[in-house]
Amino acid sequence: DIEIPESHPRYQSLLTRHRIEAGVEKGITSQQGLIAQGRGEAFDYLLGEETIPSADDAARVAAAHLLLADHPVISVNGNVAALCPEEIVELADAVDADIEVNLFNRTEARMQAIVDHLREHGADEVKGLTADGRIPNIDHKRAKIDADGIGSADVVVVPLEDGDRAEALGAMGKTEIVVDLNPMSRSARAATVPIVDNIMRAVPNITAHANALKDASREELEAIVAEFDAEDALEAAERAIRSSDDT
Ligand code: ATP
Ligand code: MG
Predict the structure, then answer these.
(1) Mean pLDDT across 195-211
(2) Gene3D superfamilies, alphabetically (predicted)?
């Protein structure tokens, strides 16, 4: 591991870069993933590298959806696996969700490497290798899902999902929780619940909200879900970005 002094003003950002680099070396993150990371970093910089109130609110709504779900599934790609594998396993445990590896640039080697990596970080079962289901209206290479995973999920968490697939998953009738730092991204716009935040902050935050809501009644959870307005959340994130010069 490299040494980054915690006192460095860009500590979190440097740590994130290092994890993505290590992910590429380990064969779990694609070269494309480096570019996605760069785009995310730019938005995080503009957001002040902190969880804005509207993103915290969305994370609580996401937790309520996950607790209400019959079959929640958390989708993991190469960036997510590199950045927060333990936090994904903790979220899955907190809301009793399945974990499924789901890659935009799918190769069997990378699928297997990510499954192994998640197991090393405490996951029991990891789905995605069966690939006996399809997302309708997506070209076949990018459409592969597990029929008993994302295929039969009612609520899906798709951090950093590609816009096309996010729209197609929404069209399948799934409740979609998207984590994406770009509020203008098609993925964020396709979401039932867009969380405009870094996955390294958002995933543990959803878990914390889920733990806090563990004893809430269905009525309380449904009220939290009903009050949420995705459009308002996206607008609040855009405002935070535009006013970043005075934060
Ligand atoms: P569209 O959704 O409009 O089709 P895209 O999917 O083509 O856009 P990509 O560059 O492929 O855009 O996707 C990467 C997305 O992931 C970007 O929107 C970026 O902000 C976001 N992102 C990257 N790293 C992180 C991170 N650590 N946490 C949250 N979001 C991130
Ligand atoms: Mg996108």
Answers:
(1) 98
(2) Phosphopantoate/pantothenate synthetase
